[in-house]
Amino acid sequence: MGHELFSNNASNNHPPQIHSLHTSPQEVQPPSRPQPWPIIGNLNLMGALPHRSLHELSKKYGPLMSVRFGSYPAVVGSSVELAKYFLKTHDVLFTNRPKFAAGKYTTYNYSDITWSQYGPYWRQARKMCLVELFSAKRLESYEYIRVEEICNLLQDLYSSSGKVIMLKDLLSTVSLNVISRMVLGKKYLDKSSEGAIVSPEEFKWMLDELFLLNGVLNIGDSIPWLNFLDLQGYIKRMKKLGKMFDRFLEHVLDEHNERRTSEGENFVAKDMVDVLLQLADDPTLEVKLKREGVKAFTQDLIAGGTESSAVTAEWAISELLKRPEIFKKATEELDRVIGRERWVEEKDINQLPYINAIVKETMRLHPVAPMLTPRQSREDAVFNGYDIPVGTRVLVNVWTIGRDPTIWDKPDEFRPERFLGKSIDVKGQDFELLPFGSGRRMCPGYSLGLKVIQVSVANLLHGFNWRLPDGMKEADLSLEEIFGLSTPKKEPLQCVVKPKLPAHLYGA
Length: 508
What we know:
Elements: H1 50-61, E1 64-69, E2 72-77, H2 80-89, H3 101-106, H4 120-133, H5 136-141, H6 143-159, E3 164-166, H7 167-184, H8 200-213, H9 219-222, H10 234-263, H11 272-280, H12 291-321, H13 324-337, H14 353-365, E4 375-376, E5 381-383, E6 386-388, E7 393-396, H15 398-401, H16 446-463, E8 464-467, E9 494-499
Parallel strand pairs: 2-7
Antiparallel strand pairs: 1-2, 3-9, 4-7, 5-6, 8-9
GO biological process, one term: secondary metabolite biosynthetic process
GO molecular function: heme binding; iron ion binding; monooxygenase activity; oxidoreductase activity, acting on paired donors, with incorporation or reduction of molecular oxygen
Keywords: Heme, Iron, Metal-binding, Monooxygenase, Oxidoreductase
């Protein structure tokens, strides 16, 4: 390739100065990229946690770095300026997705919102999400579901008082139940439901596997001629997972279609699958929504809505268990604003700045997606005079941005106070904090995820005192993560709760 990328300025204080070189890569070795090896490029520099590997490389090569993953060139942006360039200023140039195996085998050949290519189909899907599925009116109409399921979570915790609990299991259950009822119309995974096609444990495993496989560095995605060997075994796992999800989703669609047929003209859409099936019948759609598309969107809705809230809430409690003084401040705010005779409701959240600050600080240090899902340039682009050729893969490392010392004071410390009195939000407009991404490819369901996270965390802190199991010290609490499309804790949090509100609030 006749273009190589390098930076004269590795500081995050200024946009990097980037130049275009019209000499061959053999003649010039640019200083802003690690030396690629034959065939594999820079894959040898990627560890088990690629966002951390690229973070360390960016310290050496600057906030804009050129890397090579096997046969493909890529650029990594690790600063606010570059996030804004890729996700806002030239968002439309970088809206494509690389055609990774995960999109082919786990999302019906790129039929979902995450992996579909930019074009009429994707634009229509995004419009469906914003206008039909995640409109403020529809989310408000489902608030009673969120209230009921969070109450169930609080009752489960109350009944587990004094025992060691695995918090992620309980959090996953509540978020999965919320999403199941909103998207599918019922708790398909309830052990008591008749003809359950998947057990709750199996389905949670499927979701974990989906997020892992959609984030892995699969060698065949970088070196296509090795794809058939499936050296890491990922393709085999993707195919197995795809079949498991398809069996479940076929069952869901069949049940919904049976109700539509039996009710005829009296049919009223009750959940998001009903809405999607109605849209699939709409003759005015620019691109016909096929059955595969309905299944792919349904899978996106279930997975995205479940993972982000459970992972973020677990990280928040983990960080707070290391800092009892933050628990105390949160309790003081909750007692003052909410009192001790009721639970926190969604409408209360704006009156709880410290709780909001805890959520934002958790998302800064532990973004659900530490590297936003890869983008790919649709056309040749120019940044400060440097040509980024069409087809270049683009990675935005929000994990590094969240630790940039030029933006954040003592960036490795968990300090919610840094957000008090500041207007930094997580809605994609403040590029210092992008847990849900930004621009056209931003997570379309972020408003739902945020509601569930905020209310869950607020009520977990409001209703209980928390401690580590006997014999475990704060220093023993691991904050290591697993890498995938999301980054949950490597060691699930075990803890002990003790109720602190009147017993009748827990349904006792």
